[in-house]
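G.,

No rush on this.
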Amino acid sequence: MKAASFDLAYPVDLAEATALLARADSRALAGGQSLGPMLNFRLVRPSLLVPIAGLAALRGVEETAQSVTIGACVTHAAIADGLVPDIGLNVLARVAEGIAYRAVRNRGTIGGSLCHADPAADWPTTLTALGADALTSRGRRIPMQNFIRGAFQTALQPGELLVAVAVPKLGAGARWGYVKACRKPGEFAHAMAAVLIDGAVRRAVIGATGGAPQMVGDAMPGGLPGVVLARALAEAG
């Protein structure tokens, strides 16, 4: 099946992109690794696509002593290849290199993954565990645990774009564990868990549960999520 007909409008800057995306029948196009198949299956039928991957405002990376801020259109491959500064323990590169296959990583973007909000995607779970914030075109700074609202649902408002993700750096003694269960490498996960132990910070998050990533308290979940979480806890030490 092929996509229904649509128009393309290439914005020259972020302001024009947000203006175009204020239309109710428009969709932003970043790497296209999720939206492309959805268009072909006609699960979505926008009349206007707004390609944003080439916008310089969405491709930058900024490092401070406290955090690394990654533009929404930075690709998984760039992160996996070490082109983004390390927050500690090589966490971001390790997560990125486990996403799908190289061809997907070459075009897929961190922001596109978050905005698509697939429960089985790597970034929603791991960035929630890392305490990252989503930065939007309207100047909002949204904690990741509040940004992902549910399966394929985010806190973005109509016409609002995810501009960047701010990820705190890890402390010198931080420990990290991330495990996902897949039928074979490159496929969507059936369950995943991320654990961060960094000073007073203790976060354990499970993903691929059919909705938003879930913070785990003292009660250990059962079934496959519990098994994966136990492995992540063991990896974090």
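When you get to it, here's the other one too:
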Amino acid sequence: MTLERTSAITRKTAETDITLKLRLDGSGQNKIQTGVGFLDHMLVLLAKHALIDLEILAVGDLQVDAHHTTEDVGICLGQAIRECLGDKIGIRRYGHMVLPMEETLVTSAIDFSGRPYLVFKAEMPAAKIGEFDSELVEDFWQGFAANAMCNLHILLHHGRNTHHIAEAIFKATARAIRVACEIDPRQTGVPSSKGVL
């Protein structure tokens, strides 16, 4: 019998108040409310493509801008996945996806190594996606990688539409997370020659 991999994270600062619940072995069910429309859209896609059940309620200082809310949600999601993975026994550890979205092509590769590092090579053609600052896509994944304690490499091969680029990044990374977090039936211990991750 496999233990259910779930996590509940709360983060309260002078800038944000966030509650996040995650079921890693889910079906993509989600209830997302951050106050940032485009971020909500990306998080719904992430839940659906990673096949995680995700609930997020975030209240942030949106009178300033969406930066703190976006970054802190990324931090909380990273913490939740790290908590769900525990000692990482039996997981695949690595995951990657090359994902097309119309004119856009993105590769995302992840390693739940216990060592945080983000490489983000995806230039955004437009500064805004609606009211959303497109540079916040990188800030979200920086917060995630640092707190999930993973290596995450995101590479834009080509793309013209900034909305498509951001969406392809979230979908590709969700798919990579899904693979990396899966239990490998052939893996009997921690997937590392060190014996610990």
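The chain has one domain: 6-181. The two ends are 23 Å apart (CA to CA).

Enjoy the weekend,
O.
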